Please model this.
Amino acid sequence: MEKIVTAIMPGLCARVVVSEGDKVAKGQEVAVINCMKTEISVNSEYDGIVKSVVSKEWDELQVGDPMVLLTVDNNG
Amino acid sequence: MIKKILIANRAEVVSRIARTCQKMGVKTVGIYSEADKDSPYLSSVDETVCVGPSNPTESYLNIQAIIDAANKTGADAVHPGYGFLSERGIFAKAVTDSGMSWIGPQPEILLAISSKCYMRQLAVEVGAEVTPGTLNPVKSPEEVVSFGEAYGWPVFLKLDKGGGGKGIEKVTSPSKVAEVLDRTTSIGKAAFGSGDCYIETVVLNPRHIEVQFIADKAGNVVCLGERECSIQRRHQKIIEEALSPVVTPADREILFANTKAIIKKLGYTGAGTIECLRTQKGKYYFMELNARLQVEHPVSEFITGQDIVQRQIEIASGAELDVTQNDINFMGHSIEARIYAEDPETFYPSPGTINKVTLPKIGKNLRVDHNLSDGCVVPPFYDPMLAKVISWAEDRPKAVAYLIQALKEFEIEGVKTNIPINLRILEHRKFFDRSMDTGFIDNYLS
Model:
């Protein structure tokens, strides 16, 4: 099934640190948000494979905006 | 004489500059991004122009959009404020190439001093001490290893063109050199267009002392005293004061002499700041030249009675200074506290909407420079500083007391602020005893 890693703070996308096809573990940093010049890590809540990267550098983000899509086994 | 100034910045500094312009009879143009379209600072200027979307690279850092805004509104000068494009030589050059006055040092000086090694060499040439280290970029990892073996570990690797707290990496042992050098070089190439690094020894818990100066085209340089900015967190200043409680009259004489020698050697015109580290043993090392108005300039204004923005505008108009060093007397003591939109527990940023704001009572002992109003939005895209509260009194204990009183009166509802932290610092015995250093927050408040 598909899970979405979303922005936890508003701000600008500083970078996405994973690429399509990468294996990610629960708790792993997948992206970084620049909120008021402070960099904040966005971590995956699931073990999975990166299906696609939605955000790119300088994108404006609101809390809940999708950043990375993951493919997760059964109940994730 | 300058008639209309475009202020290429946002938030409190725009209102600060506009206030002096109004006093001088100079018109003002403010710029804003889409995120700032209703920001309080825009009511302090005569005209406003939208320069782009919220993303600062497309608005406040967009040189072409800002030059277009200046041309469209008929501005004959640009004041860059601090941060953003304020120290970018290419922006200053674009302004002067468009026939406008740049309120800051000459573009070619901004370009030259963006190299920290250039400034270190210049400081040494005029006899100022710099933090022990190299005066040129390192050529190999072996050079870093032999430096560390000679001076002791850890050492700092610093980017020649770094800034804003970026590009400073600590190397703890010889085995880490190659990795850190590689990483720093690539950060530098990506962020500053140069991967050159130089070495500095690590000064343990220094105090941060800086000299405010103004210089005109005739080569007159006047120092407006020093400021102490040792209370910092992650290289971000929180509390600043003037004069420094640790600098002696003899120290001050040397600091002023070094400042004047550096500025004269450069042929720099405008206002600026020479930043130094003071070691625990009382040595002063030149660190860098900040070629702009600084956030903490109001404490120097309070103790000297000078309007630094007015001096900047006069100097940019070609006027010679009508004050000499002998005319500058330091009166009383002034302290500034910066108010940031951040959670005082986690230090996380806290953007949002401010429902209600109650400002402290201003007067001859208190000044508040801010970008606040009921219902205003604090966007997540820019610096978290909301306001500066600055107190003045005949002596330091009274100035501290006024500032504490003001911070207790200051109420901001809707976003979290660091006011509780500021109060803890100001009420701390070590602060009262004047024995603070840059490790204060980590050592006493964590």
Observations:
- The interface with chain A takes residues 53-55, 57, 341-342, 348-349, 351, 380-384 of chain B (CB under 8 Å).
- The longest strand of chain B covers residues 221-233.
